[in-house]
From TrEMBL:
<dbReference type="Pfam" id="PF01272">
    <property type="entry name" value="GreA_GreB"/>
</dbReference>
<keyword id="KW-0804">Transcription</keyword>
<dbReference type="InterPro" id="IPR023459">
    <property type="entry name" value="Tscrpt_elong_fac_GreA/B_fam"/>
</dbReference>
<dbReference type="InterPro" id="IPR036953">
    <property type="entry name" value="GreA/GreB_C_sf"/>
</dbReference>
<dbReference type="Pfam" id="PF03449">
    <property type="entry name" value="GreA_GreB_N"/>
</dbReference>
<keyword id="KW-0251">Elongation factor</keyword>
<dbReference type="GO" id="GO:0003746">
    <property type="term" value="F:translation elongation factor activity"/>
</dbReference>
<feature type="domain" description="Transcription elongation factor GreA/GreB C-terminal">
    <location>
        <begin position="84"/>
        <end position="153"/>
    </location>
</feature>
<dbReference type="GO" id="GO:0070063">
    <property type="term" value="F:RNA polymerase binding"/>
</dbReference>
<keyword id="KW-0648">Protein biosynthesis</keyword>
<dbReference type="InterPro" id="IPR001437">
    <property type="entry name" value="Tscrpt_elong_fac_GreA/B_C"/>
</dbReference>
<dbReference type="GO" id="GO:0032784">
    <property type="term" value="P:regulation of DNA-templated transcription elongation"/>
</dbReference>
<dbReference type="InterPro" id="IPR036805">
    <property type="entry name" value="Tscrpt_elong_fac_GreA/B_N_sf"/>
</dbReference>
<keyword id="KW-0805">Transcription regulation</keyword>
<dbReference type="GO" id="GO:0003677">
    <property type="term" value="F:DNA binding"/>
</dbReference>
<dbReference type="GO" id="GO:0006354">
    <property type="term" value="P:DNA-templated transcription elongation"/>
</dbReference>
<dbReference type="InterPro" id="IPR022691">
    <property type="entry name" value="Tscrpt_elong_fac_GreA/B_N"/>
</dbReference>
Length: 160
């Protein structure tokens, strides 16, 4: 991203809030199965391995919960990008070095149903953030360096 707090679209906020609720429910379920026993307690190795696996899962859930909470807090403190500047939620028309022009929607959460979506953490998405029409952006692809010219920047599409 640009290093500054980035706003998120209402759809992305809803998706993150739903994921957070699901993760918290999963975490409660895992926490209820943790015994909190110490390593010196009797029990077979299978019980200890299961306990370790549940503790590892709890740590994974805690980590993802913390990431989502931080992202939601950061987004709440962010102002939307200035008009004409690419930010999360912008619709951007870009012209690639081969001459092809494409309009993309810069989003935060991948959506298989949105063929025009470019995530903000993808190489192209990161390159576009903070730029405006007429600027050339450079980014790296698995095939090597690439560049594109920002043709135009539009506002986020209206909610359906």
């Amino acid at each position: 991203m640009t290093g500054l707090p980035e706003p998120i679209s209402p759809a992305a906020r809803t998706a993150l809030e739903q994921e957070l609720a699901t993760l918290r429910t999963e975490r409660e379920t895992v926490a209820a199965t943790l015994r909190g026993t110490d390593a010196d307690s009797p029990g077979d190795l299978a019980d200890q391995a299961d306990e370790l696996q549940r503790a590892t899962e709890a740590a994974r859930l805690d980590s993802r919960i913390a990431v989502i909470e931080a992202r939601l807090a950061q987004a709440a403190a962010a102002a939307p990008p200035a008009p004409g500047v690419v930010g999360v939620g912008s619709t951007v028309t870009v012209r690639f070095s081969d001459g092809a022009t494409r309009s993309v929607h810069l989003g935060e959460i991948a959506d298989a149903a949105d063929n025009a979506l470019v995530t903000a953490d993808s190489p192209l998405g990161r390159a576009l953030l903070g730029h405006g029409a007429g600027e050339t952006v450079s980014y790296r692809t698995p095939g090597g360096p690439a560049s594109a010219v920002v043709v135009s920047v539009g506002a986020p599409p209206a909610p359906a």
